[in-house]
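Problem 12. The chain below contains 355 residues. Write out its predicted structure in token notation.
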Amino acid sequence: MHDSVKSYYLYYLNVTSGDMQKYLLISAISFFLGFQFLDAQEVHWTQYEMMPLLLNPAKTGDFNGTFRVGGIYRNQFSSITPDAFNTPGIYVDAPVIKGFRDNDWVGAGGTIFVDRAGALGLQTGAFLLSGSYHLAIGKAANTYLVFGFQTGAFAKRIRDIDAYNSEANILGMDDPTQGTLTDQAENAQEYAGGLIFKTNFSERTFMELGFSIKHLNRPRLSLGQGGAGRLPMRYTAHGYLDYKVSDQFTLTPGFLYENYEPASLAVAQLRGSLLVNEERDIYVNGGVGFRVDDSAHVLLGMQFGDLTVGVAYDFTVSDLASAANYFGGFEIAANYIVKIYKKPEVDPVIFCPRF
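Solution.
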């Protein structure tokens, strides 16, 4: 959450007391969850690798299998107000055709997400289609440069405009925003691009670095009657390093940095994966993370062959920590890689009897 909004909450904490203080705080948070950054509100996930097509369109088709399907659900700040962030998302992608060279391939996929926030029910959603080209470097094909592109529909809408009740209303002050909002849906075309570099340094070490830009066209999208504002470009840098400590255990430090004016976020995570059943290909996954000036993370999950499931919990450490009782966001996610093997065509063999 942006620092200016945090300061607004703290202002009301300083000028009020007792039950009125609590009421105003809850009202302020509930209102701003649905109203802050009507032109620039962006969704984010702690398990960002579990929504790969939204992380970077170059992640499309980046797996071994026929196709992949996955989804995630996030709930945030429900300990403060029932009008919290609720964000589900799903995706499907596949490596569809071979590229121009033997070790190249093309990926395609689509993703949908809907974010609903606050007392106003501010709804942000998108339906996006993406494609990627995976370019092998070197004869060994242990290094790839991946290009991705994404486009689709991006929309915002206030679902419960009659619930508008700002702090200014509560304190009997004039509210310049009153009457300027509309519950009509606003739609825009979205374009995004991404690039990923990945390489195997050795049999034990793999690295991936990526960069993407969303809202390349800076679409006009505003829910105010005063005119449509342009969404700022969203720049994302991400990466991780897989280090195989032993045949059973892999350690994965990773990072994510995003900037979309006037906000930015930085995340660092350390994850581990332990092989517990080699015959059934079962892994136990876990890790910790930190989003700067916002929250600390605990991540848990399991992998059963081609099925991966995960949960994450955010402990708020920002200025809202005491109001949220140090609770924050909860996520649950899963993805499954489907592998369809082509039945081999075998030429019939006619045995000639010997006499």
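Discussion. The chain is about 10% helix and 50% strand. Students who got a different answer should revisit the alignment rule from Section 12.3.
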